[in-house]
Specification:
Blueprint: H1 2-6, E1 11-21, E2 27-38, E3 42-47, H2 54-62, E4 69-74, E5 77-78, E6 86-89, H3 101-111, H4 116-129, H5 145-157, E7 163-167, H6 175-190, E8 198-203, H7 206-212, E9 215-220, E10 225-231, H8 243-260, H9 285-297, E11 301-303, H10 304-311, H11 315-327, E12 331-332, E13 337-340, H12 342-349, H13 352-363, H14 367-378, E14 383-385, H15 386-396, H16 402-415, E15 419-422, E16 427-430
Parallel strand pairs: 3-8, 3-9, 6-7, 7-8
Antiparallel strand pairs: 1-2, 1-4, 4-5, 9-10, 11-13, 12-13, 14-16, 15-16
Helix pairs in contact: 3-4, 3-5, 4-5, 7-8, 9-11, 9-12, 10-11, 15-16
Length: about 425
């Protein structure tokens, strides 16, 4: 143990800052003075709200992005290029749809230059490890979401990485499948004579990081910074219903909620030299309306933790709905409560058409919607390609999942009868 502590971290970033430069020349700061270490034989989780730069940190550690400033190290040495011994499991399955399971796994081994014989044995081993035996010749269209993610895991594990990086790997599958996948990946990691020896998990799911991680790096947004690092010394296997696990979950709830839903506005800061990224909470319209109706049925307010527990909703997703309702001035968030504002009560009591009017008025108070409307009005046929909106999202929210933000953006706009979207032509138009 002493030797392990004396060795430098497997991967580390020190005082990293990162800024995206927009086409206009403006600079958007997404990370400020971030330091993170990943040691051998541990699982580290990056936990924080949308827009805090979790995925950017992962990509910097992997060598996919070079930070604006700061140091990236592998075993104490400065990183030059891609980090060696790292494999990544992405949020989207990122499978080749025209390839079978075996061919999808083989593709990464061929890219790594492995001989055909060794690649074949590794493919068989990886498929067995993730429980896909019997599905070797299946195509992605024939697989469930959980099975697709197993292919992604098999592809990563076939490389026998020293470190496995996972970017929201279970967010696209149902709760039971996610629970099974988490347990299986921990079982694989726990066999110490095989790789990976370390894992980095990007997540917004508090229960997930408590069940998986040894250290939890809690981040804040605008720009992304490390708020605190929580050591998780609970022994494995962990029981999600144990008092110790529930206590740590509650502690992290308080940390996240206290920062993301503060009781008082932050003190006015000095004028910034550069604009800060905008944030559009990734909550669907139905999530926001469901929250408002839940609060209306309970006298206009409820505890955020109680809502999650009683509704069975993931806390991270619920928090996005609360933040979306707050962004639209329909909900306020004193302490751990979500409370309907006067306009929120009016929305809850309104008939469907009036609800849409209120929603539309709120959207037009947000620059991301107002600017696109103005551009559409100036367009000759009042139509713009989807790529125009994506570019606008990239400029305003460079650290975000652009496709997911667009889905939310157009969903909000459609509900408010603000914009229409032709999926066949990929065109946005005035409603």
């Amino acid at each position: 143990m002493a030797d392990s502590i004396a060795r430098p971290p497997l991967h580390a970033i020190e005082n990293v800052c990162h800024t995206f430069v927009l086409p206009s020349g403006q600079r958007l700061e997404v990370l400020r003075d971030v330091s993170v270490e990943i040691r051998e034989d541990e699982v580290v989780a990056l936990l924080g709200p949308s827009g805090c730069g979790k995925s950017t940190i992962l990509r910097i550690l992997a060598g996919l992005i070079q930070p604006t400033s700061g140091t990236v190290r592998v075993r104490g040495a400065p990183l030059d290029g891609l980090a060696p011994g790292v494999a990544i499991v992405f949020q989207g399955f990122a499978l080749f749809p025209w390839m079978t399971v075996v061919e999808n796994v083989r593709a990464v081994l061929q890219a790594a230059g492995l001989p055909a014989g060794e690649a074949t044995s590794r493919i068989a081993e990886a498929i067995r490890m993730v429980g896909l035996t019997g599905f070797e010749e299946a195509y992605p269209r024939e697989l469930s979401g959980g099975m697709k993610q197993r292919v992604g895991m098999a592809r990563a594990l076939s490389l026998r990485p020293e470190a496995l990086f996972m970017d929201e790997p279970f967010s696209q599958v149902d709760a039971l499948t996610a629970e099974a996948l988490r347990a299986e990946i921990l079982d694989i990691w726990a066999v110490h004579h095989q790789n990976p020896s370390a894992m980095l998990l990007v997540s917004h799911d508090i229960k997930e990081v408590v069940m998986m991680a040894d250290r939890i790096v809690v981040l804040s947004a605008n720009p992304g910074r490390v708020r605190t690092v929580v050591e998780n010394t609970l022994p494995r296997p962990r029981d999600a219903r144990s008092p110790e696990v529930l206590a740590l979950v509650d502690r992290l709830h308080d940390l996240i909620t206290g920062h993301e839903l503060p009781d008082l506005p932050e003190p006015a800061a000095a004028p910034a030299a550069a604009p800060q990224p905008e944030i559009l909470p990734t909550a669907d319209v139905t999530d926001v309306i469901g929250l408002i109706e839940w609060l209306e049925a309970r006298g206009g307010q409820d505890d955020v933790f109680r809502i999650a527990a009683e509704s069975g909703r993931d806390f991270g997703h619920l928090l996005q709905a609360v933040k979306a309702a707050e962004l639209l001035d329909l909900v306020d968030t004193p302490r751990r409560l979500a409370v309907l504002t006067t306009e929120g009560r009016a929305f809850a009591a309104a008939p469907p058409e009036r609800r849409k009017e209120i929603w539309r008025e709120k959207l037009l108070a947000l620059r991301l919607f107002a600017d696109v409307r103005d551009s559409l009005r100036q367009a000759p046929d009042h139509r713009l390609p989807r790529e125009f909106v994506l570019e606008t999202i990239v400029m305003r929210m460079p650290a975000e999942d652009y496709d997911r933000v667009f889905e939310v953006w157009i969903g909000w706009a459609r509900y408010g009868d603000l914009f229409a979207y032709d999926e066949d032509e990929g065109a946005v138009s005035l409603q």
